[in-house]
UniProtKB/TrEMBL annotation:
Chain coiled-coil ranges: none
Lineage: superkingdom: Bacteria
Pfam hit, one: BPD_transp_2
Family per record: Belongs to the binding-protein-dependent transport system permease family. LivHM subfamily.
GO CC annotation, single: plasma membrane
Segments crossing the lipid bilayer: 20-42, 62-85, 97-122, 142-162, 194-216, 223-253, 277-296
Record-given protein name: Amino acid/amide ABC transporter membrane protein 1, HAAT family
CDD domains: TM_PBP1_LivH_like
The organism of origin for this protein: Allgaiera indica
GO process terms (BP): amino acid transport
Subcellular location: Cell membrane
InterPro entries: ABC_transp_permease (IPR001851), BCAA_transport_permease (IPR052157)
Length: 308
């Protein structure tokens, strides 16, 4: 692999990792604070992408569409929490899985009804179009660099909010000892609602920034949800720092692995076969990583403080 290709793949891995973090951050808080298995979290990613598409066609302005999409994703998450999720808090995990899986099916079909089954795309905003030279031989899209910067900015804001505010203190306490938080008189339902809303908005924001890069289609959040669960298991349930570190690791391993595995299998297999076998082997790497970490650190790399 040339140095130029390595740099491109590293940047692509960082960009993918940042999107994973935006999804996993809300998921790890919901799972850590509430012990709630929300399989429908990935649908919020899809909702954000479709909202961006709809608002862009209504307003003609990407930035206004992004803002409206985030606000709507927040409102939609709070609506789901009020109408459906809060009735499942006291139920067992099987009920939560079945209910949220039903939401996935419903919203995927609703997306087909409203927007059709065809793949949609969004143009890159003019301000972030084009590319910049990183080396004499390499130019990289400005928009992809901006998505990396946006992810880092959100990670910093989350770190400050969770680590240095009263609400963040309650979230951290809820992630480790939720019974104690409730016993101290904290309105635990309101705390749950805040966590759900923030998680939904972050997942929607990930969908907004992913829309100009990836295809917008029904079911687009299903596969990324599986990877997001891998991220929170590797990083430690309830840990924002762990989710950030694990998202970067998974993004880089997944992206670099596809290139390296294809090149490695190409040494012993014909090119036509290595192009198929390489990506298949690469997709296994993140699950091998997760299994290895669970063996040596069952609570994840950076578990929430106080987690047993």
């Amino acid at each position: 692999m040339s140095l130029t290709l390595l740099l491109i793949q590293c940047l692509n891995g960082l960009q993918y990792g940042m999107m994973l973090f935006l999804i996993a951050a809300g998921l790890t808080l919901v799972f850590g604070v509430m012990g709630f298995i929300n399989l429908a979290h990935g649908v919020q990613y899809m909702v954000g992408a479709y909202l961006a598409f709809a608002f862009l066609h209504l307003t003609g302005n990407f930035w206004l569409a992004a803002l409206l999409s985030m606000i709507t994703a927040l409102a939609f998450g709070l609506l789901l929490e009020h109408v459906i999720f809060r009735h499942l808090y006291g139920r067992d995990h099987l009920d939560q899985v079945l209910a949220t899986f039903g939401i996935i099916i419903f919203l995927n079909e609703l997306a087909k009804v409203l927007f059709g089954p065809a793949t949609l795309s969004l143009p890159v905003p003019e301000l972030l179009s084009g590319s910049i030279p990183l080396t004499p031989e390499l130019r990289y899209p400005v928009y992809r660099l901006a998505t990396i910067g946006a992810g880092v900015l959100v990670a910093g804001l989350l770190y400050l909010a969770v680590g240095h505010t009263r609400v963040g203190m309650l979230i951290r306490a809820g992630a480790t000892t939720p019974q104690m938080v409730a016993a101290l008189g904290v309105n635990i339902r309101r705390l749950f609602m805040v966590v759900f809303g923030v998680g939904a908005m972050l997942a929607g924001f990930a969908g907004v920034i992913a829309a100009p890069i990836f295809a917008v289609e029904p079911g687009m959040g299903d596969n990324i949800l599986i990877v997001a669960f891998v991220v929170i298991i590797i990083g430690g349930i309830g840990s924002i720092r762990g989710a950030f570190l694990a998202a970067l690791m998974v993004g880089l391993i997944d992206t670099l692995g596809r290139t390296l595995a294809t090149q490695a299998t190409g040494l012993v297999l014909p090119p036509s076969m290595s192009d198929q076998v390489g990506p298949a082997l690469a997709s296994m790497l993140i699950y091998i990583l997760m299994a290895a970490i669970l063996v040596f650190r069952p609570q994840g790399l950076l578990p929430a403080k106080g987690a047993a």
